[in-house]
Design a protein that fits this description.
Blueprint: H1 5-41, H2 47-68, H3 74-94, H4 102-125, H5 131-160, H6 167-171, H7 173-182, H8 198-203, H9 205-236, H10 240-263, H11 269-289, H12 293-321, H13 327-356, H14 358-386
Helix pairs in contact: 1-2, 1-4, 1-5, 1-7, 1-9, 2-4, 2-13, 3-4, 3-7, 4-13, 5-10, 5-12, 9-10, 9-11, 9-12, 9-13, 9-14, 10-12, 11-12, 11-14, 13-14
Pfam families: MFS_1 (PF07690)
GO molecular function, one term: transmembrane transporter activity
Domain Major facilitator superfamily (MFS) profile: 169-391
C-alpha cells in the first residue's frame, strides 16, 4: 500500500522533530540538573549562589528568545539557529573543565544558545496547516521531550555509578553534536512573516491561557530542577546516582500523560488544565510532608502527570488562537516567559531555602499555584468558547 505524500511528509517532519528534540532536551536537562550538583558539592556554592547560577542561564534564554528570536525574519533566525546549534555542541563538554568562575560564563552562554534553538523547534512542529495533524505533531513533540527526560536521567544515573559528576558532560557531548548535525533539517516559514506586536500577543486569550498555565507548573518545576537533587541528598541522604535516578520516575509519569495526548486529540483545554492544577497541588503537598526517599519518589511520580499535561496544553492554546504567520512571535514570547520563570524562581527559592529550608519552600508553592487557578479557568474557557470546543 502506497503512503500518501502528505502522510510521508508528516512522517519525515516527525522523524526530524523527534530526533532533534530528544537530543537537545536529554542533554539540556542533564546540564540543568547536574550543574547544581557540581556547583554545590564540588565547587562550594551555597543555595543562593546556585539559584543565581540557574537564574543566569534563564536570563540568557530569555534575552535570546525575546530580544533576538522574536525580532528576526525567517532567514535570519535560521542562520542564528544553526550557529547556536554548533555553539551548543562546543559548550556542552566544556562543563567538564568548569571552575568556580568559568561555570558562570558557561551557564550564561548555554542559556543564550538554548533560547535560539528551542522556540524554532516549537514553531517548526506547529507549521502543518491541518489542525488535527498539527496538534498531533505538537503532542508527539512534547512526548519526545518526555522520552528524553526519562532516558536522560536514567543514562546519567548509570554513569554516576561508575564515573564522576563532571564526566556526565562528556558522555552527553554526542547529543550536542547530533543537535548541530541535524539543525539544517529543521524547517522555517518561507517568505516574510507578519510581525505581531507584544501587546497583540499578550492580549490574546490563548497566550494568556498558555502563560498562566505554564506559570502554575513551571515555577514549581524550576524549583525542582534547581534543588530537587539537593533536597534528595540533604534531606534523605540519597546518593548522587539515586538523586538523578529520581528524575526518571518523575518523567515516566510525564511520558504517560503526553502519550495520552498524542493518541487522543483533546477537545476543550480547561478540563485537562483543571486536572493538571489539582495534581500539582497534591504533588507539592506530598513533597512537603515526605519523610523518606520512597515518599519523595511517590511525590515525584504524582508531579510528573501535570508536567506531561501542562506544556502541550499551552502550545495547543497558542496554536488554536494565532494565525500561522503570528505563531513565531507568540512562541518566542511564550518561551521568553518560561525563561523569565527560570530567572526569577531559582533566585527567590534559593534565598528562601537558605532562610527557611527547602521543605517549606515546596509548601509555599502550593499557595501560589492555587492562586493562579481562577485566572487559568477564566482564560481557558474563553479559548474553548472561541474555538467552539465547549461540549
Amino acid at each position: 500500500m502506497k503512503i500518501k505524500s502528505n502522510e510521508a511528509n508528516f512522517l519525515l517532519v516527525l522523524l526530524i522533530i523527534v530526533t532533534m528534540t530528544f537530543a537537545m532536551r536529554a542533554s539540556n536537562n542533564m546540564a540543568m540538573t547536574t550543574v547544581p550538583l557540581l556547583a554545590r558539592y564540588f565547587l562550594g556554592y551555597n543555595n543562593t549562589e546556585i539559584g543565581a547560577l540557574s537564574a543566569l542561564m534563564g536570563l540568557g534564554t530569555f534575552l535570546a528568545s525575546s530580544l533576538i528570536n522574536a525580532r528576526l525574519n525567517s532567514g535570519e533566525r535560521r542562520r542564528i539557529f544553526m550557529i547556536s546549534s554548533m555553539g551548543y555542541a562546543i559548550i556542552l563538554p566544556l562543563f567538564y573543565l568548569a571552575t568556580p568562575l568559568s561555570l558562570w560564563i558557561l551557564s550564561a552562554v548555554a542559556g543564550v544558545v538554548m533560547g535560539n534553538i528551542m522556540p524554532n523547534i516549537i514553531t517548526s512542529a506547529g507549521m502543518l496547516p491541518d489542525r488535527k495533524a498539527r496538534e498531533r505533531l505538537l503532542s508527539i513533540y512534547t512526548l519526545s521531550l518526555s522520552v528524553s527526560l526519562v532516558v536522560g536521567p536514567a543514562i546519567e544515573s548509570a554513569i554516576l555509578q561508575h564515573f564522576s559528576v563532571r564526566s556526565s558532560f562528556l558522555f552527553f557531548a554526542p547529543f550536542g553534536a547530533l543537535v548541530a548535525a541535524m539543525s539544517p533539517l529543521i524547517k522555517f516559514p518561507e517568505g516574510e512573516e507578519q510581525r505581531s506586536g507584544a501587546s497583540k500577543v499578550i492580549s490574546n486569550p490563548g497566550f494568556k491561557t498558555a502563560t498562566y498555565n505554564i506559570l502554575a507548573y513551571n515555577i514549581p518545576f524550576s524549583t525542582l530542577t534547581a534543588f530537587g537533587g539537593i533536597y534528595a541528598v540533604s534531606q534523605f541522604h540519597a546518593s548522587y546516582s539515586e538523586a538523578t535516578g529520581l528524575f526518571s520516575l518523575f518523567f515516566i509519569t510525564s511520558l504517560l500523560a503526553r502519550l495520552y495526548l498524542s493518541v487522543r486529540p483533546i477537545g476543550g483545554v480547561w478540563a485537562h488544565m483543571a486536572i493538571s492544577i489539582s495534581m500539582t497541588v497534591l504533588g507539592l503537598l506530598l513533597m512537603t510532608v515526605a519523610g523518606s526517599l520512597i515518599e519523595l519518589a511517590i511525590a515525584l511520580l504524582v508531579l510528573g502527570f501535570p508536567h506531561g499535561l501542562t506544556y502541550p496544553l499551552s502550545l495547543i492554546s497558542i496554536s488554536r488562537t494565532f494565525k500561522p504567520e503570528e505563531r513565531n512571535a507568540a512562541n518566542s514570547q511564550f518561551f521568553a516567559v518560561m525563561s523569565l520563570v527560570g530567572i526569577v524562581t531559582p533566585m527567590l527559592t534559593g534565598t528562601l531555602a537558605d532562610l527557611i529550608g527547602l521543605r517549606y519552600v515546596f509548601g509555599l508553592l502550593i499557595i501560589f499555584v492555587s492562586a493562579l487557578a481562577p485566572l487559568i479557568r477564566r482564560n481557558a474557557k474563553a479559548v474553548d468558547e472561541a474555538t467552539r470546543l465547549v461540549m
